[in-house]
Amino acid sequence: MSPPSSLKHLPPATAAAASPRAVATPRATGIRGLCALPTWRLRCSASAAVAATEMVGAPLDWAGRSLEELRSLPDHDTFCLMALSPLDGRYDRFVKELMPFFSEFGLIRYRVLIEIKWLLKLSQIPEITEVPQFSKEAQAFLNAIIEDFCIDDAKEVKKIEKVTNHDVKAVEYFLKQRCSSNPEIAKVSEFFHFGCTSEDINNLSHALALKEGVNRVMFPAMIDICRALCSLATQNSGYPMLARTHGQPASPTTVGKEMANFAARLSDIGKSFSEVKILGKFAGAVGNYNADVVAYPEVDWPKVAEEFVRSLGLQFNPYVTQIEPHDYISKLFNLFTQFNNVLTDFDRDMWSYISLGYFKQIPKAGEVGSSTMPHKINPIDFENSDGNLCQANSILSGISMKLPISRMQRDLTDSTVLRNLGMGLGHSLLAYKATIRGISKVQVNESRLAEDLEQTWEVLAEPIQTVMRRYGIPEPYEKLKELTRGQAVTKDSMQQFIDGLDIPEEVRSKLSKLTPHSYTGLAEDLARDIEKWVDLESGFQIK
After folding, report:
1. Segments making up each domain of the chain, as ranges
2. Which of 15, 125, 135, 485 is such that its CA lies 20 to 30 A from the CA of 504?
3. Where is the Fumarate lyase N-terminal domain positioned along the sequence (predicted)?
4. Active-site pick, 6, 135, 311, 370
5. What is the pLDDT of residues 169-223, one digit of tens each?
């Protein structure tokens, strides 16, 4: 079979690939399963790892292999220096795990997967006699194209696109060329992209990228943060700390309890991710199966489309236009934005605690804090996290607001926006790793915590006036307000006030033993119990 006439003027390398003599020979690889990921990736929980292996299509060894190919490029360092986005330049070593899913390479590979899976699905529909069941050899040939897809293959698609000026059509022509050496497949190669609009291919490609990239890369990093916070909470559950409301001294808490608050908040958001349904459509140019029904009216196309979408591990959306309306992406990204907001709150609290001296920063050999002040150890990891979370949320929220809006049955505005899915996630991942690094570099400064507490005996005004209420002493709040508000309060002055109260001696004795250090309520118990409330098994996963 000769290539389409529009491709006969391709550059020599591409023309050679288009020749019937170009055979798709499966490439051998020793990388299989989860071990294909770079060794420097964040640790993944057991549940997340299991979920990652249940993704549709070929094993995710292709992701690790593509990263190895990227590292081997001789001009990679030059590219990083000239990259417009710092994610692809300065920070690429922190976000490389996302590249196989959300790069141009990843999008092309997912398109190839969808086109091949659709041809295989057509061969299973009895009414479509023109596409008979493929032999095992033909099926293996097609699956090898998916499993062995590499950066060089993606480059071939891009060469074709220079002629077609259409990215999805370029994938169709690439597959026709690649399969021209297999007579069984070549006979039915016109059924590549049968009945499809480009968005049938694209929406499923983006859906798979989100499901696999988020499950495999983003969630493990988010789980690591929650676990680190749980460890901070339990290990520091008993260290009393002066709380601050409105920036002013307030009733004491413990270091661990404040860490537990964030662990609980973030893990609670994690549960909501499991409620997100990654949706797909496959209903043609305007969502009504128009061309399919004309070609094969006897086929139940809505049923076929649903079976196909679900076979990819996605949920089916039956009511669509030319595009899947992207409402699920908005919901997903809104959850990331919410998680990022809470993490920003944590980063800024840690910055403040470090500024107050409540945490010491562990110096790193060779690291410079200031170009002119040699003594500086700055909280740069929490600051970097804060900044990247801000950048991430500006992108994520922009995408979530834009994507659900498309004129009538479709305009093209979503296409360029969808190419930025990895940007918002990339800045989020960069922030998550920075937060983890920041946590690993701090330790509690017990002496500074004790010093602040010793200077704020006025915080005992709250429990004393509360006990006074119990025993019917009039105007307890007003009496403590007069004693403490704007006044220098010491241990002795507070004891003198307690001695003058008309309360049972046993109660007086208990109040006399109360100190700012011991007045922490149930904070220590709450911190120790945090792991009972944090559920990382049912959350942080998209099924």
Report:
1. 62-194, 209-278+314-445, 451-520
2. 485
3. 90-391
4. 370
5. 999 999 999 999 999 999 999 999 999 999 999 999 999 999 999 999 999 999 9
